[in-house]
Design brief:
The protein is an alpha/beta fold. The chain has a five-stranded mixed sheet. Helix 2 links the parallel strand 4 and strand 5. The protein starts with 8 loop residues before the first strand and ends in a 9-residue tail after the last helix.
Length: about 325
């Protein structure tokens, strides 16, 4: 049996009905049901193994109940982007794909990369995220219906208008749910008040930052920028110097930061000064906006870390 003084690494492949696990460098193949009983049995099994790292792919929410149980049991869980796992599998030459193979790849990823352990969202925060996700879906449906109306006959256009009105009412309802959830939590309410003090930052941006980025205020400026995906990466090879690009990270957070930055370059004196300075230096408008997004994110991170409101002279 292969041993490793570095410890045992466990990978968990998540599906709707079951959880497949494996270990590296020591194999521990097993399967558990993806329900409350299965989560408890899995936690008991892993506590007996005492792994150094447990790696799980983000699967759109199917993993969160299980991850919460493992984290509550004091187990070291890291939730990673599926693209990281796919790229790693290609890099080590693993072409086959089964649930057990995926679990082993995740275990090997943990041993090689040792991904950062992130705070796990509690039940209330996951509910807030669910409402926020539903609100985003409703907004997308409104946009889709408005596009359909452009080519619809008068009869169908009337039906579309009625549907749009109904969707907008549901969006208002979601906004109310979000506001009540934040006010019900003293901690969230305090954080929301700090973020809302920034010119150009509205209620949707505040809620998204709280629900989708619980790490805000706990990481340094480089870590939070990389986590969200607003940190530019080099694209150089030999003498060639390519354009720096942002990629990866949390798209939903970037979307609201983009909209907040567009408003901020008009009404936030700090962002407006940065934007105009970059344009005067010959930068593209999109590059200037991304720089403002990063500044806004770093400012939010510092404000929650220090517990201070926005002040133009400080930030």
């Amino acid at each position: 049996m292969q041993t490793n003084a570095d410890g045992l690494y466990i990978g968990i492949d998540v599906s709707k009905t079951h959880l497949d696990i494996d270990g590296y460098p020591e194999s521990h193949r097993a399967q558990f049901s993806n329900d409350a009983a299965g989560h408890l049995n899995l936690a008991s099994k892993l506590q007996s193994l005492q792994p150094r790292w447990i790696v799980v792919e983000a699967t759109g929410g199917l993993e969160m109940e299980m991850v919460s149980v493992l984290a509550s049991a004091g187990l070291p869980v890291a939730v990673i982007n599926p693209r990281q796992a796919r790229d790693f599998a290609k890099a080590i030459g693993v072409l086959a794909k089964t649930d057990q193979v995926d679990a082993l790849v995740l275990a090997r990823f943990g041993e090689a990369v040792k991904p950062a352990l992130r705070p796990v969202k509690d039940g209330e925060l996951r509910q807030l995220e669910d409402v926020l996700t539903r609100r985003r879906q409703l907004v997308e449906m409104v946009t889709a219906e408005q596009n359909r109306k452009l080519q619809a006959s008068p009869l169908i256009a009337k039906e579309i208008d009625e549907h749009i009105d109904w969707l907008k009412q549901r969006i208002k309802g979601a906004d109310g749910d979000l506001g009540r959830a934040i006010k019900a939590s003293p901690l969230w309410h305090a954080k929301a008040n700090l973020l809302a003090s920034i010119p150009g930052v509205g209620a949707v941006t505040v809620t998204t930052m709280l629900a989708e980025l619980p790490e805000l205020g706990t990481l340094n400026r480089r870590e939070i920028s990389a986590l969200v995906g607003v940190c530019p990466y080099n694209r150089d090879s030999g003498k060639t110097r390519g354009r720096r690009r942002i990629w990866g990270g949390r798209a939903c957070v970037r979307s609201v930061l983009y909209m907040a930055a567009l408003v901020g370059v008009r009404y936030n004196p700090t962002l407006k000064a940065i934007y105009e300075r970059l344009l005067a230096a010959g930068k593209m408008k999109k590059v200037a906006i991304v720089a403002c997004m990063r500044k806004l994110l770093v400012t939010m991170n510092a404000m929650l870390r220090d517990g201070t409101s926005w002040t133009a002279t400080v930030y």
